[in-house]
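TICKET: design request
STATUS: open
ATTACHED STRUCTURE:
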């Protein structure tokens, strides 16, 4: 049984693959989009429980997508984590101003991202045995 559905949005395909694998191993169903327009289409058709969203993308950037998600009554409760190489305080402030629930800078630890997702979705962090 899935722990929840996560929409991963990034134009860097290797990031999408890393997150697809990491979140899939944690029991999440992962759906993906490679730009902001696809992300909004996926929001309507798939109704994810949480969104991991890059900022610098073609068509619509992550700030615009986050603002659209949070201004739509049907999706405004969906947690959004912005994941970006933009690490300045002003960038993070803008992210929270458009409604993001969390902001993580690249490079990032997939494990840390999973912990944040678990927290936002109210899931217990699963401990993995050390090899």
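STATUS: resolved
RESOLUTION: sequence designed for all positions
ATTACHED SEQUENCE:
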């Amino acid at each position: 049984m899935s722990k929840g559905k996560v929409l991963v949005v990034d134009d860097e395909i290797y990031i999408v693959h890393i997150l697809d694998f990491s979140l899939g191993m944690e029991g999440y169903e992962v759906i993906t989009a490679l730009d902001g327009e696809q992300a909004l289409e996926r929001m309507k058709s798939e109704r994810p429980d949480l969104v991991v969203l890059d900022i610098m993308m073609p068509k619509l950037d992550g700030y615009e997508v986050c603002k659209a998600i949070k201004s739509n009554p049907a999706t405004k409760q969906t947690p959004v984590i912005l994941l970006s190489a933009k690490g300045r305080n002003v960038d993070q402030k803008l992210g929270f101003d458009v409604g993001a629930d969390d902001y993580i800078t690249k490079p990032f630890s997939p494990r840390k991202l999973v912990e944040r997702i678990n927290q936002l979705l109210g899931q217990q962090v699963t401990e993995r045995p050390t090899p």
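CLOSING REMARK: Confidence is low (pLDDT under 50) at residues 124-131. Helices lie at 13-25, 36-46, 62-71, 89-97, 110-120.
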